[in-house]
Amino acid sequence: MDNSQLFSGIDVLRDLSVREFFMFFVYLSLIFVIKLTVEWIFKLILKHTRYRERVLPIIEALLNWLAFYSSIILFLFYFWKESWLTYPFYETDGVEVSVFLIVVVIMIVTFASRIVKTFNRHVMPFIYEQFDIDVGLSFTINRLIYYTVMFLALALSFTTVGLDLTALGVVFSVLGIGIGFGVRNIAANFVSGIIILFERPMEVGEMVEIDKKIGRITRIKLRSTVVETLKDGTMVVPNQYFIEQIVKNRSSAELFARVQVSVAYGSDTAKVEKLIFEAAEQEIPAMKGVPLDQQPDVRFIGFRNSALDFQVEVHVVDVQMKEQLESRLRHAIAKLFFENDIELAKAPSPADE
């Protein structure tokens, strides 16, 4: 090597010259220049929208892989003759652990993660489409494939560096007993996540009601489930909640805009019911998207100490429509009650309650 050392004070890198250090980064830059050039060429070739949407992401993922692993392989070959790369700093059961071996382990884990994610993202959707598999089941299959492959990759990595998996299992068992009481909630959520993935009491894409908030499940992870609501943002719900609590699944149930109104005693109940029905009949055609094949359901639902309670229900197709229609119904009912001298019930006093 050249005598002009760049890292003269560092034992491991003392033989590295400025020239070789510079040339390594030149070769590294060349790899990424080639990657960007090939991407640009494929973008020019694939002009059809369908091919750009389906084929181009796969090509970009493959080029990213090649660039990443080519960089690692360049690093290994370029510094192969350096003693620090293969010098064993740890030895167990005849396996000499070196920097080279650690890099190989990292390559195994990252390669497994990348290939299974790409497989699930670009290959499995075609299989699900052929067999008409719904979104919830496909998500479960993807997660199981990912966890299985990563477990095998980690097991292979531990074996490569000389770790005895049997002894490692005993160590984790002892540690698990010691810290189990401290992380029992995490463990419970983890087990609940596995139960949800296998039993599928709810799936990705379904509508659920949690604490009177309705949202759509977008992701089921091992510890928690992500629920997107219309107005309250994203809720991250521990999986244990879905197993231990009563959760309403709104996907298979019909959705209704529901308004309750209370009038004073002495009011003409038949007239009140007629006015509420009239308000619903006015607002249903005025709002786009509300199904017109079902009549609004108006009922006299109960007596209270100082009020007569009525309720109107109108079939709707989504949560946003439900909230908008409920607001319009309240406005229409208030207007008709005022025009017809219908008095609303007064708020009950604490003594009445």
Q: How would you describe this structure to a colleague?
A:
With 353 residues, the protein is α+β, with helices and mostly antiparallel strands. It has helices at 18-45, 49-78, 83-86, 99-130, 135-160, 165-179, 184-199, 239-244, 269-286, 319-339; strands spanning 90-92, 95-97, 207-210, 213-220, 224-229, 234-238, 248-249, 255-263, 297-304, 307-316. The protein has ten helices and ten strands. Strands 6-5-4-3-7 form a five-stranded antiparallel sheet. Strands 8-10-9 form a three-stranded antiparallel sheet. A two-stranded antiparallel sheet has the order 1-2. It is elongated and about 100 Å long.
Assembly context of the chains: single chain
Question: How many H/I helical runs?
Answer: 10
> Averaging pLDDT over every residue, what do you get?
78
Sheet/helix structural class: alpha+beta
Major sheet summary line:
5 strands, antiparallel
Spatial order of strands in the largest sheet? 6-5-4-3-7
Provide the succession of SSEs: HHHEEHHHHEEEEHEEHEEH
In helices, the fraction of residues equals 55-70%
Which stretches are poorly predicted, pLDDT < 50 over at least 5 residues? 1-14
What is the approximate shape? elongated
User: What is the terminal-to-terminal distance?
Assistant: 93 Å
Query: What share of residues are in beta strands?
Result: 15-25%
Strand tally, please?
Answer: 10
User: What gyration radius follows from the Cα positions, in whole Å?
Assistant: 33 Å
